[in-house]
Design goal:
Elements (H helix, E strand, L loop, with lengths): L2 H6 L5 E5 L19 H12 L3 E6 L4 H8 L5 E4 L4 E3 L6 E2 L7 H16 L5 E4 L4 E4 L8 H15 L2 E5 L2 E5 L6 H11 L8 E6 L2 H13 L4 E5 L2 H4 L6 E3 L2 H16 L6
Parallel strand pairs: 1-2, 1-10, 2-3, 10-11, 11-12
Antiparallel strand pairs: 3-4, 4-5, 6-7, 7-9, 8-9
């Protein structure tokens, strides 16, 4: 933490936009097996308690599932890559323009489950407004065929297909992503104003949208990629940490510096 970086994170308000899987929680073989460590939850709770500070989960999970996994009250939750937003301690509200795709998502779920039933190791995650088809546990030999089947389903139903870390995602074809959602919340909370600070941390391809959007809009925004050095090649993030433990350590350092306490936790 250099003096220059510390200064960039000392603004008021501070908005911390944090991905969940692979950032706060280590990547798990199955989505339901993911766990946010107790020490990370403690750091998040301490960050929420800071004055002039907003914490937002920026997740591909549904807002409800992301909130459940993290288990810290007082946070904003942006779920389904920006399709739904939950203010602190309130239920999520989906964008008005996704409702018309509800039937298509339901049909896509049926078809994707049929693919998964014949492809050992493929797991379909139903997030109500989007679907994630995980193939982390699948034999590498079947991945091309599975990917082709899922792409065909998306095309046939007029849904958008995106690719993440060993996951294929089907979404309504609306112009929203983590970048547009991050900017919208940052604007609403005055986090892009002079004297404010923005921190964005993520590990996946979908987080690159947020890195680019924030840096284009506010060059002093602090963007951090999580992963190995090889994975960090080509990221739009300005900074890099190795794993969720280092994310927690970074958050603890920010809390300490903003509070002026030697042991804020």
């Amino acid at each position: 933490m250099t003096p220059a970086l510390s200064h960039r994170l000392a603004g008021r308000p501070l908005l911390a936009l944090l991905d969940v899987d692979g950032t706060l929680s280590p990547i798990a073989d199955r989505p339901e097996h993911a766990i946010v460590p107790a020490a990370t939850r403690q750091a998040l709770a301490a960050l929420v308690r800071q004055s002039d500070t907003h914490v937002a989960l920026l997740s591909g999970r549904s807002a409800r599932d992301a909130a459940r996994l993290v288990g810290v009250s007082g946070v904003w939750v942006i779920g389904n890559h920006g399709i739904e937003v939950a203010p602190p301690n309130e239920p999520a509200v989906p964008r008005a323009d996704v409702a018309e795709y509800a039937d298509r998502i339901t049909e896509a779920l049926v078809r994707c489950n049929a693919v998964a039933d014949s492809a050992p190791g493929v797991v379909v995650e139903d997030k109500r407004w989007t679907l994630s088809v995980h193939y982390r546990l699948a034999d590498r030999a079947i991945v091309p065929a599975v990917s082709a089947h899922i792409a065909s389903i998306a095309q046939g139903l007029g849904l958008r297909l995106t690719v993440g870390k060993e996951v294929l995602e089907l979404r309504p074809p609306v112009d929203v992503n983590k970048g547009t959602a991050a900017l919208q919340l940052a604007e609403a909370l005055s986090a892009l104003d002079s004297g404010a600070s923005v921190l964005c941390i993520g590990d996946d391809r979908t987080d690159e949208d947020a890195f680019r959007a924030l840096r284009d809009r506010q060059p002093l925004a602090v963007t951090v990629f999580v992963g190995g050095y090889g994975e960090a090649v080509g990221t739009a993030a300005e900074f890099h940490v190795g794993d969720p433990d280092e994310v927690r350590a970074l958050l603890e350092t920010i809390i300490e510096q903003r509070s002026g306490a030697s042991n804020p936790l």
